[in-house]
Design a protein that fits this description.
heterodimer; A: 262 residues; alpha+beta; Alpha-Beta Plaits; 2 domains; four-stranded mixed sheet; two-stranded antiparallel ribbon; 8 helices; 33% helix; B: 127 residues; mainly alpha; 4 helices; 2 strands
């Protein structure tokens, strides 16, 4: 009887040891493979944009961008500012860069319009708050995408975005779309929408509609530059290297991928 | 058991009501006329075989939707024919099935199925 109890205790001790020693070991292996997965899925391309504020002071440039985008994506023009839908629009310099103003801000910037759009953040707060993953950061090119099929219209993302880049469809947008519909799907009442960096055009190897629109205006080349930020040879990387650029609300840590030449 | 006769009458009425739809269909002969769908001219087949498309077109469309929107994929290889198609409702499907009214809607009405594809997706003609 004594011996069997001794045996039992021995086995029990071994079991305890193996469990105690095994779990941390397992955990290290698991976390290692998890880390590998995470780095393996690292973003390989990050589309980004540089906007030249001075060139975009031209009303013609801004209108061309906004109209091209609205046409491309069937964005409705709803007169009521409470219900308007915006993908790319103008904001005053003060509203766009509340951290960048002081009593002696230059006259050429004070109160002047700046083109703003979704920043396709590296660390997007809208993605974190979405309960259905209707919005997510695309791993292959860093675009913050929207899946309208999944959006339940909770508007957490609107609250989460510090740039006001998202709009809610309070009503059926179709009656408010100017001109004929283009192939891009319209949205339904009850979903949130925003700029998608023209993912549908990039897929076909074309530039975003706003960038392409500006290229047609003589003397306004470089008002908007678009490209891969991770490619050191891209035009956008060159522009960023050669100019002093700023971002909107950098202190929030969202990591905007739209830059401005002041 | 004074109400025996009443119960029997009630039961007979109940049974008659329950059996009526079945008898009616027997009498009329089948489940009514199936809708006549207008198939695209000059095409011999769809992206998959007909039986699969009839039974599973909705699953295929959902698969395409997720592949395009969420995984950023573009092309679909047909399981039955090995041919490659662009996954696009308005671009590929409606390139052949040009008239929604005489194809999609006609069958969906018959089957009493609602879908909301067209609330957003723009038909090739432009609404």
């Amino acid at each position: 009887m004594d011996e069997s109890r001794r045996d039992f205790l021995k086995k029990f001790g071994f079991a305890l040891l193996s469990v105690g020693g095994g779990f941390p070991l397992l955990r290290t292996i698991a976390s290692a493979s998890e880390k590998e997965l995470r780095t393996g899925a690292a973003v390989s391309t990050q589309w980004g944009m540089v906007i030249d504020i001075q060139k975009c002071l031209s009303e013609q440039v801004r209108r061309a961008c906004i109209e091209a985008c609205n046409r491309e994506h069937n964005v409705p023009e709803i007169p009521d500012p409470e219900e308007e839908v915006k993908w790319i629009w103008s904001e005053t310099y003060e509203d766009a860069f509340p951290e960048g103003i002081h009593p002696y801000t230059a006259d050429y910037l004070k109160g002047k319009p700046v083109l703003v759009l979704c920043n396709h953040c590296t660390n997007p707060p809208c993605v974190k708050v979405c309960p259905t993953q209707a919005t997510w950061k695309r791993e292959e090119d860093g675009i913050v995408m929207m899946d309208m099929h999944r959006c339940i219209g909770c508007r957490y993302c609107i609250a989460g975005c510090p740039y006001g880049a998202r709009s809610f469809n309070w009503r059926d947008p179709r009656p408010y779309i100017k001109g004929d519909l283009t192939p891009f799907p319209t949205r339904a009442k009850g979903v949130v929408e925003k700029c998608n960096f023209c993912a549908e055009r990039l897929r076909k190897g074309q530039e975003p509609a706003c960038v392409a629109a500006v290229k047609n205006i003589p003397g306004m080349e470089g008002a908007l530059t678009f490209g891969d930020l991770y490619d050191p040879n891209s035009e956008v990387s060159r522009v960023l290297r050669e100019n002093h650029t700023i971002c909107r609300k950098v202190s929030l840590g969202t990591g905007p991928n739209v830059f401005y030449i002041v | 058991m004074n109400d025996k006769s009443k119960s029997i009458v009630g039961l007979v009425i109940f049974l008659a009501l329950v059996i009526f739809p079945v008898l009616y269909n027997f009498a009329v002969g089948g489940a009514g006329p199936r809708p006549e769908l207008e198939l695209p001219e000059g095409e011999s087949r769809c992206v998959e075989d007909k039986d699969f498309m009839t039974a599973h077109h909705m699953d295929l469309l959902l698969e395409w939707r997720d592949a395009v929107v969420r995984q950023g994929k573009k092309n679909y290889t047909s399981q039955a024919f090995g041919e490659i198609y662009e996954m696009s409702l308005t671009g590929t499907c409606m390139n052949c099935h040009t008239k929604r009214e005489t194809f999609c809607t006609r069958c969906h009405d018959y089957a009493d199925v609602d879908n909301d594809c067209w609330g957003c997706h723009v038909e090739p003609e432009g609404q």
